[in-house]
Design goal:
The protein has about 290 residues and is an alpha/beta fold. The protein has helices at about 35-45, 60-65, 70-75, 80-90, 105-110, 115-120, 140-145, 210-215, 230-235, 255-270, 275-285; strands at about 1-5, 25-30, 30, 50-55, 95-100, 125, 130-135, 155-160, 170-180, 180-190, 200-210, 240-245, 250-255. The longest helix has 14 residues, at about 255-270. Bound molecules: 1-O-phosphono-alpha-D-glucopyranose (G1P).
Length: about 290
């Protein structure tokens, strides 16, 4: 069970924070964004992480490796709790792969860059900009839904957004329900509100069949001049079913400042160790 994490984006919306540091390493409370998403993948049973990185992203590789000097110092000082925080997030050796997207040609191209690492099996795709706060996590809910459908299906997490925001996302058309999921009848990347088939948007979690790679191989650029995953999914939908799942939980678009700040508040409030004190601080700030 493999999952792809595209982490090659430039993060220009967070400059200057992302001048020397990848946006995926921005922290929500005390875990980098990418760690939250990897946690969600592990919870869903993912065993192998595939990162599609770019230049200036080597800190992400370091994050998923041992930090030997730090471990030594913490051991010498008897800091057991801190050592556990490190060992808890260390993947087993040989279960993480990195490949580089050499040019920023779009999400579809980033996914295609992972084709040899994925091989001929279904895989999960998680966009680290999006956090979903819920237990069980969004991907676990999708895998459960997929298991109740026919074999060789593709499943996308979707959510309702206000009509004035649909142009920022991939949008799906809604067909018949099947258990918790529904048949996707249409997919459009970044449509005008007037041309969107619904206000259900693709939320950054996908379960895809490997045939998508054959299509991506020759996929032409689409919206924004980028090779779009959604366009390749439209082509794949001619031969394989696509289902949508309205997942439980709140999503945060951490690619935007407001979403990122809101995620920090939501995840901070949820924490048993700091939540109550943090709530007091927020209430003071709001003048309550
Ligand atoms: C990508 C996908 C889009 C999806 C979105 C979710 O767009 O192309 O279909 O709705 O992620 O965040 P991007 O945010 O990279 O423009």
């Amino acid at each position: 069970r493999k999952a792809i994490f595209p982490v090659a984006g430039l993060g220009t919306r967070f400059l200057p924070a992302t001048k020397a540091m990848p946006k995926e390493m921005l922290t929500v409370v005390d875990r980098p964004l990418i760690q939250h998403v990897v946690d969600e993948a592990y919870e869903a049973g993912i065993e192998h992480l595939i990162f599609v990185t770019g230049r200036n992203k080597s800190v992400i590789e370091d994050h998923f490796d041992r930090q030997f000097e730090l471990e030594l110092t913490l051991t010498e000082r008897g800091k057991k709790t801190e050592l556990t925080l490190l060992s808890d997030v260390l993947p087993e050796a040989g279960t993480v792969s990195f490949t580089r997207q050499q040019s920023p040609l779009g999400l579809g191209h980033a996914v295609w860059c992972a084709r040899e690492l994925v091989g001929h099996e279904p895989f999960a795709l998680l966009l680290p900009d999006v956090l979903v706060q819920h237990k069980p996590g969004c991907l676990a809910q999708m895998i459960e839904a997929a298991n109740s459908l026919e074999t060789k299906v593709n499943v996308l997490a979707v959510e309702e957004v206000p009509t004035e925001r649909v142009h920022m996302y991939g949008v799906v058309g809604v067909g018949e329900s099947k258990g918790k999921a529904f048949k996707i009848t249409k997919m459009v990347e970044k449509p005008k509100a007037s041309e969107a088939p619904s206000n259900l948007t693709i939320t950054g979690r996908y379960i895809l069949q490997p045939e998508i790679f054959d299509i991506l191989q020759t996929q032409a650029a689409g919206a924004g001049g980028e090779i779009q995953l959604t366009d390749a999914m439209v082509a794949l939908a001619k031969t394989q079913p696509f289902y949508g799942l309205k997942f439980s939980g709140r999503s945060f678009d951490c690619g935007s400042k407001i979403g990122f700040l809101a995620a920090n508040v939501a995840y901070g409030l949820e924490r048993s160790d700091i939540g109550p004190e943090f709530r007091g601080e927020i209430e003071r700030l709001l003048g309550k």
